[in-house]
Amino acid sequence: MQTRQKKIGLALGGGAARGWAHIGVIRALNELGIEPEIICGTSIGALVGAAYASGSLDELEDWVLTLDWQETAKFLDISFHGGLIEGKKLFDFFNQTGNNLNIEDLPKKYSAVATDLESGSEIWLKEGSVLDAVRASIALPGLFNPVYQNGKWLSDGGLVNPVPVSLCRAMGADIVIAVDLISSLAGRHLKEKDNQNDIDSPLANTLKNLWSNIITEDNNKPRTPGLFETIASAINIMQIQITRSHFAIEPPDVLITPQMADIELFEFYRAREAIEEGKKAVMQCKSELLSLS
Predict the structure, then answer these.
(1) Can you tell me the distance from the alpha carbon of 206 to that of 8, in angstroms, rounded to the nearest whole number?
(2) What is the phi/psi pair of residue 85, to 5°?
(3) Catalytic: which of 156, 183, 184, 201?
(4) Tag placement on the chain: N or C end, fewer CB within 10 Å?
């Protein structure tokens, strides 16, 4: 009697610019002969996961490797309607890469996690427009505009399920490989970075110093954390705690944790570093991954 081959699911977590590490993770898994059948993502994990599930990961990787801080700034179109960033330019590009399909038509099983802003419920987006699912899952409160779908205002899935292991299992995965981009940030909040060149990058300064002209600093006190520094730290703390709670109940079979504490929330132009770290993190789990059956 032939034994049924176990289905492998890949749960890609949120992490803003650190999410380009998911590209490296997928590349390294494929090199090991591991090709997940089920792809679930939260926030930036939903975006990269959609590219993989639709067969357009090459196009996404080629694009992110061209980004510099000026190009990144162009995609961060400022808005004051539900979030600081409208995201239209980003999603226009994503749409052009072929991700305007319906989820049901993708070559791989795919789903994204979003949050119902009214009820606080976790929403699993398993059908309909891929682009709409990604747009909802990535809508970080206060930063990206929420998305109105099916009578609900949807926001970032990281508010309820930062690394969607449970969704992978619900979709039929026997084995779940999870990629957690946030846990490595524990204990780092509001600390000065070692690499001052990163701090002084034009985009980082523009974002972190937003509205700083209305704050009066007292030189006798520690530096007041900037707007985006505070938001990023709060989001990290929240998602770390939620992820720990989820893993305690439903742990993944293999957990991959790229170490990217020095990459900030909006440093999308550091894709090459993130991708390489994703590959490195997979290799550190190589024996564990190859033992899957």
Answers:
(1) 42
(2) -120, 125
(3) 156
(4) N
Element (H, E) at 62: helix 57-64
Which ranges of 128-284 would DSSP assign to H, the alpha helix? Answer: 130-137, 165-170, 196-199, 202-208, 227-249, 271-284
- Separation of alpha carbons 41 and 130, rounded Å: 12
Of 43, 54, 155, 184, catalytic = 43
Question: Which residues, 6 or more positions from 24, have their beta carbon under 8 angstroms from its beta carbon?
Answer: 258, 274, 275, 276, 277, 278, 279, 280, 281, 282
DSSP states of 198-236: HHT-HHHHHHHTTTGGG----TTSPPPPPHHHHHHHHHH
Residue count (the chain): 293
For the stretch 29-80, pLDDT in tens is 999 999 999 999 999 999 999 999 999 999 999 989 988 877 676 666 555 5
Per-residue pLDDT tens over the stretch 99-112: 678 999 999 999 99
The DSSP bridge partners found for residue 39 are 10, 110
Contacts for 258 with CB less than 8 Å, ≥ 6 apart: 18, 21, 24, 25, 179, 181, 184, 274, 277, 278, 280, 281
Q: What is the mean pLDDT of the segment spanning 202-214?
A: 49
The residues, any chain, with a CB within 8 Å of residue 128's CB and separated by 6 or more, are 102, 103, 149
Per the CB < 8 A criterion, the answer to whether 145 and 83 are in contact is yes
Residue 43 annotated as catalytic: yes
The overall longest dimension of the chain from CA atoms, in Å, is 76
Nearest Cα residue to 259 out of 184, 177, 191, 178:
184
